[in-house]
Amino acid sequence: MILARISRAIREQNWFAVALEFVIVIAGVVIGFQIQGWSAMQSERDREVAYLARLHTEIEELQVTRERSVSRREGFYTRLVEFADMLNGRADDEPEEEHCAAIGLSFVVSNPTDRLAVLDELLSVGGFETIRSPEVRAAIGNYLLVVRRAEDSNALSRDMVIVLHDQFPHLIRAASRQGGIGLPYSEFECDFDGMRADPVFRNAFATNGFGFSTHNAHNLSVDGALSALHGTVDEVLELEAGHDLPPENTE
């Protein structure tokens, strides 16, 4: 229809009408591009909010998952420090069963889970440009860096630590028990006097203590970086206590 009007105006040499029709055409194209650009920008914004909503949910789930494992190992670390003081004459207290359990499990320095599926997805598809917030991007980068450092450190700790009940069966004995939910666990019996008198064991225990201390420190670093990421995502999503997350875009 527009082309027909332009052709008629040209035949009639109505140059004002020709110019007006061209202005209408150009304006329509410009407005169309603007609408298309706005729609694409809004779609990208919806994707960002959906990613951040998923990230927020996964962070909270991961924090719950990690809490039991990390706090338990932090407790073991405390018992190992206490026993080191007793072993080296810096404390007059007598060790107890919980110290024996910590000694027996001092070789367990595997990483508690620290993966966030949404970050793996963003990495695999190269979608980090979807996250516009520089604060969130920085917090994600810091979290991934801290996780990588923890992985590298724990690899060294795993190579360092010794299964003490295998190397010193006369000083620490392990027995497998069945837990209340059907999972096996280990109980340990310790000869604390024999440990004090055995310099080889004391050296081995010091090695495990160092490896476990490093492992525990990196666990806490990962938790700190995860908590910082949680807070940053909260700020960007403008969350307050009791408010719901924006709905996830499933398209």
UniProtKB/TrEMBL annotation:
Superkingdom: Bacteria
Protein name, as recorded: Uncharacterized protein
Transmembrane segments: 15-35
Keywords, in A-Z order: Membrane, Transmembrane, Transmembrane helix
